[in-house]
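Intended use. Records like the one below are meant for learning the mapping from a protein sequence to its folded structure. Do not use them to infer anything beyond what is encoded.
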Amino acid sequence: MFESLSDRLSGVFDKLTGRGALSENDVNEAMREIRRALIEADVALPIVRSFTDKVRHRAVGAEVVKSVTPGQMVVKIVHDQLIEMLGEDAQPIDLNAPAPVAIMMVGLQGSGKTTTTAKVARRFTQRDKRKVLMASLDTRRPAAQEQLKVLGEQNDVDTLPIIEGQGPVEIANRAMSAAKLGGYDVVLLDTAGRIHIDEPLMVEMAEVKSAANPHEIILVADSLTGQDAVNLAKSFDERVGITGIALTRMDGDGRGGAALSMQAVTGKPVKLIGTGEKSDALEDFHPKRIADRILGMGDIVSLVEKAAEAIDAEQAAKMAKKMQKGHFDLDDLAEQLKQMEKLGGMSGMMGMLPGVGKMKKQIEASGLDDKMFKRQVAIIQSMTPTERKKPDLLKASRKKRIAAGSGVQVAEVNKLLKMHRQMADMMKKMGKGKGMLGKLMGGMGGGMPDVDPKQLEEMAKSGQLPDGMELPKGLPGGMPGLGAPGMPGMPGLPGLGGSKMPGLPGMGKGKKR
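Structure written out for the chain above:
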């Protein structure tokens, strides 16, 4: 969503950071560009004015003049100001109240209320281990109640039984008493929406509010509606009093102005963002992380959190044991590819890595896409269990059969086998304890590994290890099959006392140093 804004801002900062000293004119020119970029991103005009005024005031002041790197200092000021505009700290949904905690979901028709309700319920159930009851109060839209019931069944969340002819207030009362009797922790009330704000809708919301006395009222707004979403939030807040906002379709190609203006205009925090259609595509809104993403600094914390949720710990432990013994068959490779897909595929992971924003065009030109993982998994699935365990069996006739079965050319099968062979060789080296990774793995059991800090520092300086915000010259390691034309290979990590490890699989051998 923030791609175009991110590109514009990185262009402005590239000009600034390339200079040794900054004059007031340089800062003014940069502010003009930033103002233009924010207006194009559909941020509310009063917010743009206040934002650029605050940045200019701080940038022309003493803190930049005295700083060692004025350009970097301006980036920091813009970063801090962005965080302030987005709302300082993350504010998740508050469940700190006597059970059952009622949460009322409000918004216009088509903004994704019912889907978001199910996503929130799934999150409370699986992540927070709460007992959740969902109730649909939408008696106007055909099959709205059935939709919530189906979503509940899909995500293993209880829904209130449907009784024909009951009004929203009666359903809300029934939901609260059912939750008390059933020992539920949280009740999610999915209210009705309209195409636009009208008096009957507001009266209905107020009645439901007084009946259920919700602890939180979350406004679900479609981020693609731009500034209209901000006006909507103000109207709902004035009439019903919302406690937070959930923005849907943040994975779309909207300009992101609504997300940036919401907190500043309404004073209400954005608590959740919907990042896709799937039931797990919901994230807490972290202002600092969003600001990092906008300024191309990546979002490693979110990537790690995502990995912790998506990767099966038992499976990972089994894999680690096999690798230590030096075993790595095609089933293991398929498992690795599936896990990368769970993390949002290539584009999802790349967007969260620092400094990769500038390489986007290069990545697109090289033809790397998320379909690549699916193709490679399909090739492996076209093999027999014996062939996956013993890839050496694959001679020409078998390769032809596999290629026909997975709908690819034989060359693709050969490429996959070559990639697997490279990875398997690397695992064997790791298993024998050669190279840096072997030493580190060996050191895990008995305290810290014996690593020379000076050597590590030299490696970091030469771009072989990620250091802070710096990214290695090639793409991040460990990603299979990235042998794309025109992209530099990542150099092998020198073994500390062992032999030099090969370049990471599928990424070329890297330059010799």
